[in-house]
Structure prediction request, 532 residues.
Amino acid sequence: MKSPLKSSIRHRIMLIFAGLMAAVLLVAWAINNWWLEKYYIDEKRKEMEAAYLDIDTLVQEKAGDTSSISEVIAKELQNEWEARENADEDSYGANNEAKERTLLGLIRDYGDKNNINMVLIDSNTGTTVLGDGRDSDYLVQKVQKYVLGVGRRHGVILKKHENYMIETNFDFRSHSSYMESWGFLSDNQTLFIMSMPLASIRESVALTNRFTTYVGLVALVFGCILMYFVTNQVTKPLMHLAALSERMSELDFDIKYEGTSRDEIGVLGRSMNTLSDKLKETIGALRQANWQLQHDIEEKIQIDEMRKEFIANVSHELKTPIALIQGYAEGLGEGMCEDKESRDYYCEVIMDEAGKMNQMVKQLLTLSALEFGSDTPVPERFDIHELIHDLLNSARILLEQKEAKVAWEAGGPLYVMADEFKIEEVVTNFLNNAMNHLSGERIIRIRTECGQDTVKVMVYNTGKAIPEEDIPNLWTKFYKVDKARTRSYGGSGIGLSIVKAIMDAHHQNCGVENVEEGVEFWFTVERARDIE
Prediction:
């Protein structure tokens, strides 16, 4: 009986997947919330530093030791004016940028690409040599206050150098945050201030987190649906293996794993097939051994029962002749027989009973050898008609004494394949049994019937029918229907048991039937193939 699954692998995998997705979303949210703003400000600071270094380097190259920043700017402005006079603006821009890198061009590039607004002031003259943008005047005022230390600053210093510093400030006029860098260039004469607006990073982080959450939830839903179908491809063969193992637990090894995959599940399935074959082979061997053991035990019990029955039957059968022999021997010894005729009678009785005992012992030995398989038949080809004819000739005197009328019409030769000596004993037993139970018309009729593979031999005698309840026991050792009559002709009740044992050894059948006005015993024997 299948037990319900309390913890399905499919559910566990889906829960693990959902947990991992939730963990990724949580980590992304935490990174955005705690480090994105710092990362953004740090990148802007690096842009400010790069702008300062590029401008400071170019100023040193252009001004050298003789020129001031005012002269450099004035010269570049003059060159631009002259270039515009000599060529159109497009060719000027392309040719000039290709030929020479100027301070004005560098400052404009940072303004366009990085949104950095810059003002340069000649500290010697106090004049603004370069101011690009609408807030130039405002920046000039701010840097002058910074240098003079006038007014309060609410910024956060990001980097402080001996010539300049970088900090963040909040402009109450525009209600915006800015990153500013101010100080002197390396010539210690040029005062500068750079201003870069900072986007509302906190709002950006919140927006990013919200968008990430929405995307993550959608991905989680679709991912769980996808994982449901994916895990089904994993759990389906596992459930098949579970059903296979349950069938194996019920000792049903015919079901097999039929998958062809080369993954771990396929390896497990093929291993279970191998295990199933091994278990089937082992259990089959155990069953065979158990059956053999049971058979041996039953055979031993049967042998013990047969031994007990044999001892009891032999003791019973020998009791009467031994008592007779003992009685007549004591009579002879005590001189009870005074005349020769009486003594001869006593001796005849003793010899007759001793002969019966000897015959019974021989029959018991024959039966024992047949039952225990030590006397196996030796098949040979012989004529069953000739064997019956010879037996009738041998028993002619006995048949005449019994006043028996024998009906036997022997046809041509009829060859069979069996142990001739043992078949002769079977026919002899049937013939003796017929003679001993003759009555009425006193007819003994022997006939044969040919089948495809066997020959049936039947011996009939007129007489009293056998009670139906006694027929199954006729083949049992020492069984007698009429004990008084059996004793009168010296029967021991072993003859038919010998017949049954001989037929069993030949793997053939025998039986008895009550027929009209008599009884008919029969047996079958293998028919010999014709020799060409």
User: Anything to note?
Assistant: Residues 484-490 have pLDDT under 50 and may be disordered. The chain has three domains: 9-205, 251-373, 376-526. The longest helix spans residues 264-333.
